[in-house]
Specification:
Domain Protein YjdM C-terminal: 46-113
Radius of gyration: 20 Å
Order of helices and strands: EEEEEEEEEEEEE
InterPro entries: YjdM (IPR004624), YjdM_C (IPR013988), YjdM_N (IPR013987)
Mean pLDDT: 87
Number of strands: 13
Low-confidence stretches: none
Largest sheet: 3 strands, antiparallel
Pfam families: YjdM, Zn_Ribbon_YjdM
Protein name: Alkylphosphonate utilization protein
Shape: elongated
Distance between the termini: 47 Å
Domain Protein YjdM N-terminal: 3-31
Structural class: mainly beta
């Protein structure tokens, strides 16, 4: 029988595994069994078009011409955007683009610089 690690929250030795999660029956804490880093904050995990993880404050480049809804303007390929902020939702990048202003972008149309 394999030894499961104790609960990182309360230290209980009575942990059990349910698929990919380890669960503590005493405090009901759940964590990933494969040793992945667990984060307590609510920052979303977002990756760019090439699979690179994005973080708040990163600089990105647009990889496709993007029409701006309700306008005749276009965000061109290669436009650099500095100091992005990650948010929840379908358009998960909040940023300001020079010459255009505040926008929300989808991470699938950008790459990390």
């Amino acid at each position: 029988m394999s030894q499961l690690p104790p609960c990182p929250q309360c230290g209980s030795e009575f942990t059990y595994q349910d698929q990919d999660l380890l669960i503590c029956p005493e405090c009901a804490h759940e964590w990933v069994a494969d040793g992945a880093v667990e984060t307590d904050d609510d920052t979303p995990v977002v990756s760019d078009a090439h699979g690179n993880l994005l973080q708040d404050g990163d600089t990105i480049t647009v990889v496709k011409d993007l029409k701006i809804k309700g306008s005749s303007s276009v965000v061109k390929v290669g436009t650099k955007v500095k100091n992005i902020r990650l948010v929840d939702g379908d358009h998960n990048i909040d940023c300001k683009i020079d010459g255009i202003g505040a926008m929300k972008l989808k991470s699938e149309f950008v790459k990390k610089v």
